[in-house]
Amino acid sequence: MGRTQTENTTEPIRALDPRFYTDPEVFTQEKERIFFRTWQYACHEGEIENPGDFVVFDIADQSLFVMRDANSVLRCFYNVCQHRAHELLQGKGNRKLIICPYHAWTYHLNGRLKAARNTTAVRDFDASKICLSEIKVEVFCGFVFVNLDSDAAPMNDWYPNAAQDLASYVPDIDRYRLLWAHNADEHCNWKVAVENYNECYHCRVVHPSFTKGVIAPQSVDIVPQGYTLRHSAQGVVSDKASYSFDDTTYRVIYLWPTMSIQIYPGRVVNTYWWRPKSLTDPSVSRLAHT
Ligand code: FES
């Protein structure tokens, strides 16, 4: 049976109490205290290169979109109209203006209200005071992150040296572009998925092609640093390797709580992005970049 970690460092670290994986109240608190206060992945910068490009995404039950405005400034907004809270955008695409599909309030790409029909007779209506609710954005080695907490510390405080280290592993990482995406539902609590990702005890059993053709499992090391976990391993150097590569190191920087960037031998970059939708239903996206 699991128990929570104690202050006594001589005690072995054990799994969280089971209720942390099954109690809906815990998930409600996680939304408020974790997902709405941590840096969350939104999309890759290459998906929103031009003014007006946008991508809609969710953080738990909140719909948001990132957009490049007319001056190419990257912005993130709640995907909610300021009039009667209708959803504004879906999917991804490009807009010259943001027009609400309900009553056609029209916003500039920087979120400011441009026009609202039939409001000239509305007393004290001042369009210049109305703007979509904006959220913090940072670009991290080409990956766009947002934080719903307006007081959140910058990513470099949360993940010290992570961006610099990634850039030293893959010098042109910020010029990589999204190549391929695979989405899947994992029918478990999001912490089970993340905890599984951050151990390789299962790798020999579950991922034999990985442990025979890509990395030497006995060389796996995982070290915490700030709110990251740094994985490293030696790539397989033999005719059994799944592919040929010059740089033989496998490295991972897991960014707590729901994103991880992997550098496979040969500087192949892919990412894991977990999106907890409910207590027992995280969606995971595996994204490859080139
Ligand atoms: S809800 Fe958007 S214009 Fe009315």
Descriptive notes:
This protein has 290 residues and is an alpha+beta fold. The protein folds into 3 domains: 1-35, no CATH class; 40-147, Rieske Iron-sulfur Protein, CATH 2.102.10.10; 159-289, Alpha-Beta Complex (Naphthalene 1,2-dioxygenase Alpha Subunit, Chain A, domain 1). 16% of the residues lie in helices and 33% in strands. The chain has helices at 19-22, 24-35, 155-158, 162-169, 190-197, 203-206, 208-213; strands at residues 40-44, 53-59, 62-68, 74-78, 92-94, 98-99, 106-107, 113-115, 134-140, 143-147, 178-185, 221-225, 228-234, 249-255, 259-264, 268-276, 282-289. The N and C termini lie far apart (44 Å). Mean pLDDT is 91; it is low at 1-6. It binds FE2/S2 (inorganic) cluster. FE2/S2 (inorganic) cluster (FES) binds next to loops. The site of FE2/S2 (inorganic) cluster (FES) has 9 residues, from loops.
